[in-house]
Amino acid sequence: MAGDRFDPARPVPRHVAIILDGNGRWAQKRGLPRTAGHAAGSETFRRIATYCRDIGMDYLTVYAFSTENWKRSVEEVSAILGLLKKYLLEALEKMERDRIRLRFFGDLSRLPKELQGLAARTLETSARYDGFQANVCLNYGGRDEIVRAAREFARRCAAGQSRPEDLTENAFSGLLDSAGIPDPELIIRPGGELRQSNFLLWQAAYSEFYYTDVLWPDFTPAELERAIAAYNGRSRRFGGIP
Ligand code: IPE
Ligand code: IPE
Ligand code: MG
Prior knowledge:
Layout: E1 15-19, H1 23-29, H2 34-54, E2 59-66, H3 74-98, E3 101-105, H4 113-126, E4 133-140, H5 142-158, H6 169-173, E5 186-189, E6 208-211, H7 221-232
Parallel strand pairs: 1-2, 1-5, 2-4, 3-4, 5-6
Helix pairs in contact: 1-2, 2-3, 3-4
The protein binds 3-methylbut-3-enyl trihydrogen diphosphate (IPE) (2 copies) and magnesium ion.
Magnesium ion binds near residues 21 and 191.
């Protein structure tokens, strides 16, 4: 199925990022606990990641758990972390068949040790493959990512390995969680909210945004195609004149 939908008139962006929002409302609408929405959302992620791989995208970055999401109830946070564990165990087992490499953005040091170990194993296994990669943002905040990068640069200066004047935009990008990955051309937010919620603050400098009221568990490949079509209709000027 790979490359099935290749059409030079409708190019696929290399890197799409999605804010996985609306799980809780999806569940509430059905009289279910919020956690049922997260379970449904994780199934949607599987489907969409596979679809992205099949249409020839290089990177899909998803916002799964923010540095602010710890404010939720212990029950909800542990349900989300439990689903992540389940997802990673499956992804590890099926990576050879699925060809979906994984990488993580965010400060994983605050996650339970078991999940950290699982993430490390997933990274190791991913290194054996090439092709499509999904970046999963866990305990991720754009500001936190920038502060961690700035701290790392300061540490290198203090150790005499760098000088302040060595810092360029490119050098700084290389210190972020997304080091080596091109900025997302398109950022999609399902769930109806028109905000960035601390997602990819640095990398989104020139991303195109696409918002939809569809709640994440209801998100489909057709919806993704609508977003890509909208993206292909935009005039990206990067501050210049077309
Ligand atoms: C997104 O869905 C998942 C996470 C933030 C972890 P929400 O849980 O925010 O769902 P809504 O926005 O309350 O519907
Ligand atoms: C953004 O969704 C974070 C993730 C999807 C992981 P939220 O539901 O946390 O964002 P706000 O609170 O509506 O801004
Ligand atoms: Mg939300």
